[in-house]
Amino acid sequence: MIIELLIAASLLLGSTIILLSAVGIIRLPDAVCRGHALGKGMTLGLILVLVGLWLFLGLETAGIKVPLAVLFQFLTIPIASHLLVRLAYRKNIQNVASRNKEAP
Predict the structure, then answer these.
(1) Nearest CA to 21 among 81, 86, 90, 87?
(2) Fewer CB in 10 Å around end: N or C, the chain?
(3) Contact in structure between 38 and 76 (CB atoms under 8 Å)
(4) What is the pLDDT of residue 89?
């Protein structure tokens, strides 16, 4: 009974955080803010979903695969978002809000 509640809470919270991160990527004005939403939100949301999957499958079925996937996500998502923001900074990509104000 308790394990099912933990699974449901982990999956629901992870899915909600991923949804909020996607909304943040769409709504935020510049590349730095979008990179922050991508890096923080997607990492935490995906980790929670993977923990829910690990609890659902159990140690016999999932074994070490899901914790390795969690570790891989911790290493790759923040680095990818940092590289995207750095590329936007180096290419001097303007903010979306400033582009919309300049349009006739």
Answers:
(1) 81
(2) C
(3) no
(4) 85
Average pLDDT of the residues in 84-102: 72
- Other C-beta atoms closer than 10 Å to the C-beta of 91 total 9
pTM of the full structure: 0.81
Cβ neighbours around 4 below 10 Å, total:
10
What type of residue is 95?
Answer: N
Q: State the pLDDT at residue 99.
A: 52
The residue among 79, 20, 81, 82 whose CA lies nearest residue 48 is 20
Other beta carbons within 10 Å of 67: 13
- Cα 4 from chain centroid? 24
User: Region 30-46: what's the mean pLDDT?
Assistant: 89
Q: Which amino acid type is present at position 66?
A: V
